[in-house]
Fold this sequence. Notes:
Shape: elongated
Helix content: 10-25%
Structural class: alpha+beta
Amino acid sequence: xxxxxxxxxxxxxxxxxxxxxxxxxxxxxxxxxxxxxxxxxxxxxxxxxxxxxxxxxxxxxxxxxxxxxxxxxxxxxxxxxxxxxxxxxxxxxxxxxxxxxxxxxxxxxxxxxxxxxxxxxxxxxxxxxxxxxxxxxxxxxxxxxxxxxxxxxxxxxxxxxxxxxxxxxxxxxxxxxxxxxxxxxxxxxxxxxxxxxxxxxxxxxxxxxxxxxxxxxxxxxxxxxxxxxxxxxxxxxxxxxxx
Length: 243
């Protein structure tokens, strides 16, 4: 009799589990349908405009336009405008001091002329992005993407070197870039993504006066400068609006 009771409990537990599985089938089917619908809706959207905030910290303004080429392949067009105008006086250690008997018998600094530092330019990146999204239980599409392309930049500068000597330079940069990123849908028509990768640029400098080259070369050129020539790391984020 004990064996019959044990068998009965086992059969009862099995029936409970089977019933639970059968009850969950419609819910799972509904979730799959919702995820499928979310992905299908994403594939019906072919255009997106994105704001890229990080260039603002480097005196630039960038807006990306993305258009679908085929199912998971997008063309990214990324124009950027650069503008900076700043009034700057030479560093304090280079200002001339003279003895002034008529003012508190003290040392008076002679104000040297201020220089207007300018930067104007444009940048354009063209990238191909492979993005294969999926949808989880929250029905929001998300996933990794891979991106690679070419870049062209043109900038004009009026600058001071570390010795407070002014010079002007026009720089054209050519190169390529490759990134890996992650994008997800925050709201029905809004996306957010961040990316990380590397870029290579070859810089061509031109000067209105030959001595300006020596004045520029006094200081090292940092990788984040638009004057830099070589390989450097890049990272960023974008807020996109699906059209």
